[in-house]
Amino acid sequence: MTDATHSASQVSLPVNTPEIERLLPHRYPFLLVDRVVEFEKDKRVLAYKNVTCNDPFFTGHFPGHPVMPGVLVVEALAQAGGLLTQLSRDPAELGKDTFYLVKVDNAKFSRMVVPGDKLELEVELKRRIRNMAQYVGVARVDGEQVACAEILCAAARD
Fold first, then answer.
1. How many folded domains does the chain comprise?
2. Active site residues
């Protein structure tokens, strides 16, 4: 997707890593979204992360029984929410501010995420208030919910 094709009304799917890196400030090892496959402006996004044994957090969480930390599943949902916001914006507004995770409510974890899983991240915009956005996110593996949370992010001008 190029600047010419990136408008809130016309997003070229899938959105791959180079474009994600243009939209979010995160970089390896903390960029936790690999691809956006569905997008509805100001409504919802469906993205995913391929979880591999090479992800650096598995070194210590837990040796011999690797499990993706739940806080990183929530962070992946927050990043997907950030992509929803960025993809919905006027391209002229991109890069003027950075969104930060400021609150997580009602986080629930129902299954472990392990190497080999494709972590699906579905995030809906619940509401937008001034410089903040509230999202509801559900993470799934093979169609089964593994985690969910309500997430609040706030923008700060760079």
1. 1
2. 61
